[in-house]
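Posting this for the archive.
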Amino acid sequence: MFYKYKLELITIFFILGLTLIHYFDFLKLYPAVAFFIISLIFLFIARKSKKIIFLFLAFLFLAGWRYALLYPQDLRGRIENYYGQDFKILGQVISEPDTSNDKQKIKLKVFYGLTENNKYFKLQGQVLIITNKYPSYYYGDLLRIEGECSNPGFIDDFNYSLYLKRYGLTAVFYYPIIEETDLLLVDKKNYFKVFIYKLRNKLTDQFDYYLSINSSSFIKAMMLNDKSSLSSEIKTEFSKTGLSHIIAISGLHISLLSSLLLSFLILIGLKRKTAFYFILVFLFFYLFLVESPASAIRATLMSVLSISALAFGQLYDMSRILFLIGLLMLFINPLFLWADLGFVLSFLAVVAIIYIYPIISSFLIKIFSKNERKQSIINIISITISVQLLSAPVLISNFKQFSVLAILGNLFILWIIPIIMTLSLVALLVSFLFPFLSQLLFLLLDLLLKYILFINHFLSIIPGVSIEINIWPWYCSIIYYSIIIYFYFKLINKK
């Protein structure tokens, strides 16, 4: 049993190690390294029956080692050393600013600090600048900032510092004095990123021009990972109905886009293996276009490995690929686990589909029907129950509520998502080539998007659509998942 699920157990041990160290902070860098090496030694010399203990300890201490690297002890020459101080910095805008409501959020890579005598000294770090909506700033702009360097800290119960650190940001400047500069002291622009941002802006402009306000904000969130114009009311409604996965770039979107592109390429006469190469290029391009959210990285890597295996005629194990990618991503950035809800929910959704869905699906087919016409409905219900079952603790701990109508919402909405994605791509392409013909396509797209928004709104106002659970300690999640794992193996062993 141990060797069959070795990679899965390694990933679980690493996650458990990160969780324990995050909440209890009982390991520092050098002790973690020492204990990791000792555990590895015992792992190789121990008996088979004892190896699982030392494997757990090895990845526990590896997690401590990696986690400790997130928080350097020596802050000299780093922006964190200037919390609470008013001073000047010189840096470069490293991504297209997020413009929503009446403000801009600018990510700035810091290169220099300035003394009171305007003398430069080297400074490291990335900061978030929150300022007025105008004047507008753009990727690659060189800015001189003067204001108070603030520790993000907590906003109510929300750990804003942890959230920003997941994106590499360690300080915030609120409404500072901003001056553009032309000093050539910093990195050159990445012209591929310039092209990506221009294309992204052009696509959002097309959606804004042809669609109604709510439809445009919805499709931009679903296709481009742009939630800046999505109203808080619509976000809350999606959260209450358990349909937030529709507006998050994840495996659903990546697999649908891959399938659409594969069908198109084969239709125009390309061989399947040649088409696979085009899909691989497209997937990475699309990943950059949507600004690489963790859930999309996970989905893209899984698709790339799966497509590569198919292209070269190799067998692949989806569960092994999933856990390997999860382990690598958490090692690269452990903060995905606490500060990126999309990654966690996306990972749990695929785990649910691989392990839980077959059990629930076979159970429901035995109870209800083996009729092929009803199979698609049973599949949607089975997938929804499986995903809800595994994601419940995460949703409760983050939103203090759990949707009871997610199955109904998915039955009404999921069938139309492939149609919307196909129509949006075709409408965009036609709008660039034959603008006068695209209006009819966008009109149809607008109607379909309004249908989803209507269903979502209608379900959200039904009394009891979600159950509120205000208290959910972290250890409840560990107990919950331990019970799930126990019953899973119990059912598997019976078979």
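The chain has three domains: 6-68, 79-189, 198-494. The two ends are 14 Å apart (CA to CA).
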